[in-house]
Amino acid sequence: MYDESAIRVQRGQTIPAEWSAIAVTLGDEGHPLHAQRRLNVDGDMTTAFFGGGAIEIVLSQDGQLLHSETVDVPKNYMLTVSVELNARGLLARMLGRGPVRIVEVERRDLGSNEPEGSISPRSLLRSQFWFGTARDLETFNTLMAERDDYYSEENEDVEGTREVVGLSAFADAQGEQWYDHDFLEYGFARQGDDLESRFAGHSWVTQWAPRVRERIDPVQLQAVNIYVSMLIDDNDRFGDGMKIAEPRDIVRRDLVLRYLGEIEFEDR
């Protein structure tokens, strides 16, 4: 059995191809786990791991709220949902239905036996980590949120040039135009005396937190209220070892984010 649950949100086939990207925010108790994740027109999906229980899914497009809904994911389960277009008739308008809805696709027990020949998720994992302090949640989210302009046709036309708009301000600061957001996770701390309580609900926090304490001075650790991790996909069969090529610190008046290095921890 695993210590975490997962939710996967995918773009349904009923969503018109001409729609711009849909932003997905996943969070529990008002604390976003992944902010502003974009679902692309080709049926892309986004996945988040958390401690199980109620999680809120908020869908928006070009800054406009499309739909919000809270779902319950039992511990050690993965829930897959699809974003689908709502029928727009008189009854739908009378009921106050929005343009999209969330449809459950599958619930899968993460502790069940895997099919023969599959790759077991239980293994050693390796991630790049950044830790630091931000003035407030808005400042941090502004750094991490994906930009609408990145997915525009105009940006595709200038890809590979200096005029291209990067995926996020964090990408800019790391010298990258793009990274796979399904391998990125970040968090703003809750109240707590240790990393496990401050970042409760984030993926593998009970596994990597002890490793982090070995590398950060205890006095500096008390001030930490933000973190970013990039999972390095090292699977022998499918992994490509993708990571931030030249990770670096970010130092501003309202935010400091220091690169700590790569940390290996158990997937459990």
Tell me about this structure.
This protein has 268 residues and is α+β, with helices and mostly antiparallel strands. It is built from 7 helices and 13 strands. The chain has a 5-stranded antiparallel β-sheet with strand order 10-11-9-13-12. Strands 4-1-7-8 form a 4-stranded mixed β-sheet, with no helix packed on it. A 4-stranded antiparallel β-sheet has the order 3-2-5-6, with no helix packed on it. The N and C termini lie close together (8 Å).
Q: What would you say about this model in short?
A:
Helix content is 16%, strand content 39%. It has helices spanning 90-94, 137-144, 153-157, 169-173, 195-198, 205-213, 218-223, and strands spanning 5-11, 22-28, 31-39, 45-50, 53-61, 64-73, 77-85, 100-109, 124-134, 184-188, 226-232, 250-251, 255-266.
Side by side, the strands of the main sheet go 10-11-9-13-12
Q: What's the total number of strands?
A: 13
**How does the helix and strand content classify structurally?**
alpha+beta
Principal-axis shape = globular
Strand-residue proportion:
35-45%
Low-pLDDT residue spans: 89-95, 113-122
Instruction: Write down the overall mean pLDDT.
Output: 79
Note the run of SSEs as H and E: EEEEEEEHEEHHHEHHHEEE
Measured between the Cα atoms of the first and last residue, the distance is 8 Å
Largest beta-sheet characterization:
5 strands, antiparallel
Cα gyration radius (Å): 19 Å
The helicity comes to 10-25%
The tally of helices reads 7
